Amino acid sequence: MTTTSAPDTARRVLPRSVIALVFLFMLIGGALRSVEAGCQNSLKLALHNVWLCGVISYAVALTGVGIILAVSLVFSSQRRWPTRADLAAMPKWAPFGGLTGGAAIFAMITVASSVGVSTFNAVIIAGQMFLATAMDHFGVMGFPRRRVNAQRLAACAMIVVGSYLMAKY
Predict the structure, then answer these.
(1) Is the pLDDT of residue 6 over 80?
(2) Residue 4 to residue 11: CA distance in whole angstroms
(3) Can you tell me where the transmembrane regions are (predicted)?
(4) pTM confidence score
(5) How many helices and strands, by DSSP H and E, does the chain display?
(6) Residues 57, 55: Cα–Cα separation, whole Å
(7) Helices marked H in 5-116 — which ranges?
(8) Mean pLDDT of all residues belonging to the chain
């Protein structure tokens, strides 16, 4: 892999075939968010308790990730575990990503059925893009710095317009 240098960041340039696979993986992941919203809504309708829905969702997710970890340990030759030095060097806030995911789950459980899954996802994506653009601009949380420019701001504006159109129609 090669790298290109920009004033703020050095990024790896991936082959087109790899980029296509990465985008396909992201599209599938994004599509599964709509399936997730449907599962969460069905769970809420059946259980009548958003907190219990959240606990069940995370229990199922933890079980699934645990199974994937166990299978990967059996079939992978690479079994590297973090050292104490790795854990000591880790930012103190790093493990709390799951809590932010939990907030997203509770938002999905409580409001997606009220506004519809398409509007919910459109507005979620708009919120993600605004914060992600700021995070890229400042290069926070281990991400390389990618300055805000007119094209990136225009993309954010188009996402907002798309969210509005999704909600209106």
Answers:
(1) no
(2) 6
(3) 49-75, 96-116, 122-143, 150-167
(4) 0.71
(5) 6, 2
(6) 5
(7) 16-47, 50-75, 84-89, 97-115
(8) 87
